[in-house]
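Problem: given the chain below (254 residues), write out its structure.
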Amino acid sequence: MSKNVLQNSLKEGKTVFGPFCKIQDPAIVEIAALSGFDFVIIDMEHGPFSIESLQNMIRAAEARGITPVVRVTENSETLILRTLDVGAKCIQIPQICKKADAEKVVRATKFYPKGERGMCRYVRAAEYTNISAPDHFGKANDDITTIIHIEGMEGINNLEEIAQVDGIDVIFLGPYDLSQSCGVPGQVNDPKVVNAMKGAVEIAKKYGKFIGTFTESPEKAKMWKDIGVQYISYSVDVGLVMNSFKEITSQLKG
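Solution.
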């Protein structure tokens, strides 16, 4: 059974970095691993992934020793179950706005006694029954990293209650959706957005949660790292490719 390296790194106090992935080819996961990233976020919410293509992305990540995180499309018990069954050990759920949303996430990601995740060991997560039932069902609760995505002021305003929900490991602050909620869509560096996020970091810290966010520059990544953010998503594969291509073509045609 593959180990949850990301979870161990966070517990050791390390800061980890990784891009969102929208390209469906497992080669992009291998490239991210070979370049030195710690994780990739396979983006089912804004990307074109199916469960079948997701499974192969996870395989590629495990083969290359990089942690696959999966952002699902919604807080859906069935979708979370299928994602975990194909082998995801880190799952990120978007649009968490209140305590009840976070509690629903825990019920879907954890087996009894912490939750109500559907039980089946004839799945990839249990190595197709190669792992015994006691080992699979007994260890999965501790081995899954549950990440919730706070994307609006409703979630920020309710974060004091949300952060107290047992079973949530990481609170991820989404700056783009938050900027829209703050009335400055797309302006992720606006003081309204930055101050709301900094306040959220302090609340998450108070309740012992790891904190994550998205950034598009090394300078901003360092800023968030310095205030205690350990799980930092750096840009998106398609954007990184686009920027690299543009830089090259501007030199070739300049």
